[in-house]
Amino acid sequence: MKVLAVYPGSFDPVTNGHLDIIRRGSRLFDRIVVAILRNPEKEPLFGLQERRKILQRATSGIPNVSVDSFDGLLVDYARRRGAQVIVRGLRALSDFEYEFQMALMNRRLDSSIETVFMMPSETYSYLSSRLVKEVVRLGGSVTGLVPPEVEQRLGARVGSRRKRTARKAAQRTQRRSRE
Fold first, then answer.
1. If you ran DSSP here, which 8-state letter would residue 70 be given?
2. Which of 91, 133, 153, 157 is catalytic?
3. Pairwise pLDDT comparison (152 vs 170), residue with the higher score
């Protein structure tokens, strides 16, 4: 029996920690679908299609990996795809409680789909998309933490936001000085 795994996430942006899990998972499972969650409650830095293209390029050298997107319940998506496994990354103990609850709920919803937890390499054990965005916003370097394409796009995206914010602040200052 061929084993299909789904590796879900927002991947906003994809990090080298995500890619580490994908590469290592590709050796464990016959196929992995990297499934980008469409979450209308979050405003992503990168749009869905942009994240999809970035992930497709970043995983293009891994033949048994494909990229897709979904909304709704993960377990429903996994069932529709015929997946037997959901892959989740655990960076630290702080991730465990949430991931454990989700795995138990997914098992309750469909006991035929197993959740497999994978730890990233030590190099990436602290890394998260949120942290990457924060470092870039504050002017720090994320070289080696994200694929080069992501680093370039982050610089352009956050740099243009910084310029807009600075321009708005200057306009407010000018208005106040005229009053």
1. E
2. 91
3. 152
